[in-house]
Design a protein that fits this description.
Elements (H helix, E strand, L loop, with lengths): L19 E5 L7 H8 L3 H4 L3 E6 L1 H12 L16 E3 L15 H19 L5 E4 L4 H6 L7 H9 L5 E7 L6 E6 L9 H4 L2 H17 L7 E5 L14 H16 L4 E6 L6 H8 L6 H8 L20 E4 L2 H12 L4 E5 L4 E5 L16 H20 L1
Parallel strand pairs: 1-2, 1-4, 2-3, 4-11, 6-9, 7-8, 7-9
Antiparallel strand pairs: 5-6, 5-10, 10-11
Helix pairs in contact: 1-13, 4-6
Length: about 375
């Protein structure tokens, strides 16, 4: 088994019960086609769901041919001819070159996503897994969106949504869950964007997700402060004193069954997470090996062992506050999950990596994990219906 990527604890009963997933190629000039082909070559990824690739077959075939010349293990790639693929003709396809993103490749990636959303809302798929896109190339193609998350929310008609990052430690089996209160906005806009209403919406989303998708009825959630040392009683910033502290106290009264830790200073927020991820003082080597070799479902509470008051999830207030630690610990295996949508959406937590596209060295671990988590969560929603 490939450690850190498998979420299922048991096989589904029949092919008919398997969730239907749309997998987009992302920007076809980036590593999206490569990681998709590598992920779909793994039977542990494909055995639990029905997968349809959304993209341009000729571009995928070109990537396959190019990579076959570079990789010694020919079975590491899925043959595009053997895949279920929803063909999307790329405008000016000949202008798309592997490793060189441009407005044409950006336009293609937008159409792939748009098609996946439309077909999913029409009932053809239970969830979407998106390969990475380049936001600057969307803009070059005339699409003014901060990212794929915002497009998904707009087309789905929801105003209440969030970016939850999930990763399973290959060292201990602990599951990291991090929600961002704000996402793709400039840092200087964060203090003005954060409000009690926004924080309450994000906390609502997180609590609901932990309950419905992860089976945690009474979770423990760590909430970060905004300023260094959470403001140092107003000496290093005033937002905590002005409203964040009082907001959190009100939330504690409104949610008596949930433990809300905070406001935790941002520089110490991730200490226990790092210990849980790497297993420092947490469990024996034998236990860690056992966790790495056992298939685990995301709705199973992670072992807390000797770490006291280890949170089940984290609520970070802005993009880098949450994603620097996530990517430091789990760059190759973290999954971006959009919560609040009427369908499942996951994505690997990495970019297009134009600089290594077509070289055969892109790591598909995060894409595999994204597909597996999407299948697991979609299956849970199907079973609840």
């Amino acid at each position: 088994m490939k450690t850190g990527t498998t979420f299922f604890t048991k096989k589904l009963k029949s092919v008919q019960e398997r969730p239907r997933l749309a997998v987009t190629l992302g920007d076809p000039a980036g590593i999206g086609p490569e990681v998709v082909l590598k992920a779909l070559a793994d039977p542990e990824v494909t055995s639990h769901c029905e997968i349809t690739v959304i993209g341009t077959r000729s571009l995928l075939q070109s990537t396959y041919t190019q990579l076959r010349q570079k990789l010694e293990d020919k079975e590491a790639l899925a043959d595009p001819e053997q895949l279920s693929l929803l063909e999307i003709e790329a405008s000016a396809e000949r202008k798309i070159t592997t490793g060189v993103g441009n407005a044409v490749s950006g336009a293609a990636s937008f159409v792939y996503l748009e098609t996946a959303i439309t077909r999913t809302l029409a009932g053809e798929f239970d969830g979407i897994v998106t390969a990475p896109i380049a936001k600057s190339l969307w803009k070059a193609a005339g699409h003014e969106y901060p990212g794929q998350t915002e497009v998904l929310a707009k087309y789905a008609g929801v105003e209440r949504f969030g970016m939850l990052f999930v990763a399973r430690s290959p060292h201990t089996g602990w599951l990291l869950r991090t929600l961002l209160a704000t996402t793709h906005i400039p840092l200087r806009q964060v203090p003005d964007t954060l409000t009690p209403e926004l924080m309450a919406k994000k906390l609502d989303l997180l609590v609901e997700c932990l309950r419905v998708d992860f089976g945690l009825e009474t979770p423990q959630i760590a909430i970060s402060g905004l300023n260094p040392h959470s403001g140092e009683q107003g000496q290093l910033g005033h937002e905590e004193q002005d409203w964040l502290i009082s907001w959190l106290e009100q939330e504690r009264q409104n949610r008596p069954g949930i433990k809300l830790d905070g406001l935790v200073p941002p520089d110490t927020l991730w200490v226990k997470a790092g210990q849980a991820w790497y297993g420092e003082g947490e469990m024996s080597t034998e236990k860690a090996i056992q966790n790495r070799s056992t298939e685990r479902s995301p709705n199973v509470r992670s072992p807390k062992s000797k770490i006291q008051n280890l949170p089940d999830a984290y609520l970070a207030l802005y993009h880098d506050q949450g994603l620097i630690p996530v990517k430091l610990m789990a760059f190759d295996r973290a999954i971006n999950t959009t919560i609040g949508l009427p369908f499942i959406r996951t994505s690997p937590d990495h970019g297009t990596a134009f600089d290594i596209a077509g070289q055969g060295i892109a790591n598909a671990t995060s894409m595999k994990a994204a597909i597996q988590l999407a299948a697991e969560l979609a299956n849970q929603r199907i079973n609840r219906c």
